[in-house]
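2 proteins. here.
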Amino acid sequence: MNIKLIIIAVVVFLLIVIFLAIFLIRHHQKKVMLKKVNYLDIQRNDVLSIPFQTELAKVSNLTKGEQLEEKINNYKTIYDNLKENSFQNLEDMLVELDFIANSKKKKEFDKKYTLAELEIAKNRYLINHMLNELTELTSYEDKYRGMIIKLKNKYRVSTREYENNKELYGLLTDTISMQFENIDKRFQDFELVINENLYNEVVLVVKSLEIMIDHIATVVTEVPDILVLINDLIPSRIRELTKLRQSMLEDGYTLNFMNLDYNFKEIERIENDILDRTKVLNIDNSLFELKTILEFLDSLFKDIEKEKIYKKDFDTTSTTFNERLSSVKSTLHDINMQLDDIKTLYGLKDADLNELKNISLEYDDLVKEYRSLIRKVKKQDNSYGKSNLLLNELGVKLKLIEDNLDLTLKSLGSMQDDEERARDQLEEVQELLKTCKRQIQSVKIPVVANNYFVELSEANEAILEIIKELEKKPIIIKTLNTRVDTARDLVFKLYNTTKSIIHNAYFAENLIVYANRYRNLSSEVNKGLNRAEILFYKGNYDASLKMVLDILDKIEPGIKSKFNKELAIN
């Protein structure tokens, strides 16, 4: 019975706590919602308190123009509409929000609150925007008169510069003076529209004055330079180039590659176009184009000066080239005179002399190309710059011929040296072979792998081949060199194998001994070490060493990396 009473008491207590919690939460939500309603009411009153009507009255008392009156009446209509509709709706929305807050309907409240908040923000923006427009209307005359004062100052600078340098404008004087008159009339237009409060026209007049004054400033600054370039500098450069071209042609140069006649005609066309546009004061990019033309003409002078240098280079290079051709020709003649004796002495066949035949053919082709180039130079078909490039290309070909000929001469003239070198290398590989045998015999290892004896046999046979080749008469140098290279490679291969066997056998044996201390760690370690020992005694030292290192690396991480630089393990 007591337990039931306790349970009932607990349940009642919990129900009371839950009820109180719900009540407090809803009460708090209601309090927050009412606070938000009060905040919106403050914001609405804040927007209503914006002194829009005061500013509207100020502007209405100042203005006399139809355009301004129309704008002001439009603002008044908009504001009255806001008060009669939007603000009245807002008042109804706030009353409704207050009722919803008391009803504690939070979701519905949040939705209605957002709508009211947006409406207030929209009204605030609209009224502030109209207020800014009104503020500008009250001061627009001062604003635009200030702008006109700055424009007049800039205009006076252009006028003064023009009057002081009137003689520089030539035939364009009347056109530029007329443009100054147009600007003066535009200033008069400004006074007219500002006095009549033609607000829209004021903006247009001021903007047009800005454009016209900026344009006349550019005209006053750039037209003298344009006229100097068209009438003096560019024609002077063209005359100098024409005179220089005639002088160059008389000295044996060719300037056809520069297309001077075409370039002069194109320059004349551009100048005429710029002059026509300048007459109506359209000078956009004109100065830039003319300066580019002048720079182009200056670059032509540099190209001509380079052509003089190229001619000197060509004459010098051509002399040297002729001397080299004569040297190669003489060498080929001498070799051909001795060729029969060389073939008999070393048993050479015609096929062995193909490289020499190829060199002779390449030489003949090169001589034809060079003669063709010289003919074109004499006919002035090519510039010396281009001829220099072509001659340099022929020089590269001649260098290849010279190098190949030099190699062929060394090959033919050094056969005795090759024979002596082969005998010296025979002694070296024989001594290295003995060293390999001594080293493998000096160490105590269970088994020497079969690959060692295979390599030993191959090395011995290769040495015997050298001896046989040296005993032949005549000696075939190419074959002898092949035998020597083969024997040297095989003996060095044997040497590396010997070194690897000794090295790996030593480390494998010592590491197995070292690893025996870990045999009791696990059966896996014990089996692995047994396998490593079996591989060792079979002569497979590489595999044995790799296996024991893998085992030790698991026990002592990092030990394997310590041996990587010393051991040759595949």
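next one coming up
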Amino acid sequence: MLMLRRLFQAVFLIVLTAPLALAVPKPHAMPAGLTRHHMIAAASPYAAEAGREILRAGGSAVDAAIAAQLVLTLVEPESSGIGGGAFMMVYDPKTKVTTSFDGRETAPASATPDMFMGPDGKPRGHFDVIPGGLSTGVPGMVAMLDMAHKRYGKLPWAKLFAPAIRLATNGFKVGRKLAKELREFPQMAQMPDMKRYFYHPDGTPVAEGELLKNPQLAATLKLIAKDGAKAFYTGPIAQNIVDAVHGAPINPGGMTLADLANYHAVERPAVCGHYRSYKLCSMGPPSSGGVAVLQILGMLERFPSAELDTRTVEGAHLFTQASRLAFADRAKYLGDPDVINVPVRGLVDRDYLKARSALIMPGKDMGMAVAGTPPQKHAEYAPQRTRQLPGTSHLSAVDDHGQVVSLTMTIEFAFGSETMANGFLLNNELTDFSFEPTRDGIPVANAPAPGKRPMSAMSPTIVFDAKGRFLIATGSPGGPAIIDFVTQSLIAMLDTHLTPQQATAIPHVLNLNSPTVLEKDTPAADLAPALTAMGHTIITRDLESGLHIIERVRGGYIGGADPRRDGIVLGD
């Protein structure tokens, strides 16, 4: 298993309600016209259909997002699920308030700052510590969904579980992405629960189009539907999670029943700022995403829109320079706000961003950027590492009354910790902590600690026009690259005036304060010679975003589903 990981690293209840019909639309069958009442864009046709059925039944956008996420637990288990966590942005048209719900996983009480250090005093390999219980954080998804439902839900909690329960009982057809991930990570067959569920007796993984059932997950969802979120965090479901973490065949962990019982989701103020005539609200700490998105846009605002098209050499260059500067600040200042004092206001201060923007040199790559000194700076921290990981998903939804949800969900790496309990995969979110608690004697902001939430890059974002009306909901998976994926989609729509579908498909250009990455086998790769002449170090590789976008236009809504995944947009 170690060799395979290093190789990869090298290349990089009873019937609860009348069941909802779940006819599966063709992937990528984006509606050509408007939808006038409601819309959902999600990473699976099954999930989008479940969300639309809830909207048709009079449910809120939050209700639809919950139903869709429960289905994603089943049909896209490699990317998200109730064994992981999420951040949800909600816009309430009645109060005109945008808020966020934090369902990020937490470290168990057994966590220590050096939990990922080896006996030689050096950090263990990232892929060496992923499988098993050591990397598993206390899941926050169910608690967050419950909190959001109590605040903004309309339909009964149990009704939202019906689509996922029916699919888990009767089976679903394996999607392209799940089949592909199983082929690309053959080491998954070495974990007993994974082998039993995802593999045939002859050792081959399930293939695209095969029918896959999960009665164990159906039973789990029935319990949570009947007894609420407490059924997840106490009782037999919680005991099975603890047993799986402790009994993992590799890297057992120390999570306890008390860790689960003590978990709480948090409603946090959204982090908001302005870009040109628009107002944007996104997720604040423990996510670094909202701050970084606002920083990149703030630094680019002085440039004319015509110069920011990332499909051009000029636009790609300017974007990468602003991204370098944002990632330098991200590495130094961001972390769990319940543990460290994050200077959010200073980092998005307009005068500070103007000063940072002045460091951008048209026509020349600045090289490795260093963190700035924002106003209200609170502390000095050592830099953190950045990684691109595929275990995340995103959906956007709007209901008949204009409530909007932008929800990004994760289990961190593909198939999380490769450990299952109760029919779902457990996350490996603790590997989002920095493995080194100190660097050169300086504390690392994102070091592990009991009860602490690891830093994230998830960037669910909602945009408003100059009159304060909802305009765009967007977000993406992609590890730290989420920040650039989301920001690039916003520039594509706000500056270049692309449609949501065009924005999801635009070739990606990234810079995480490292080499500039151009999406392989796309027109972005053709920019390499000109960018190299500007001093960029170029890497080309596959970039698997998963943008799902909704835009309000005259008369209704239009949407976009990233062609790199199996997603779809549905509405009425």
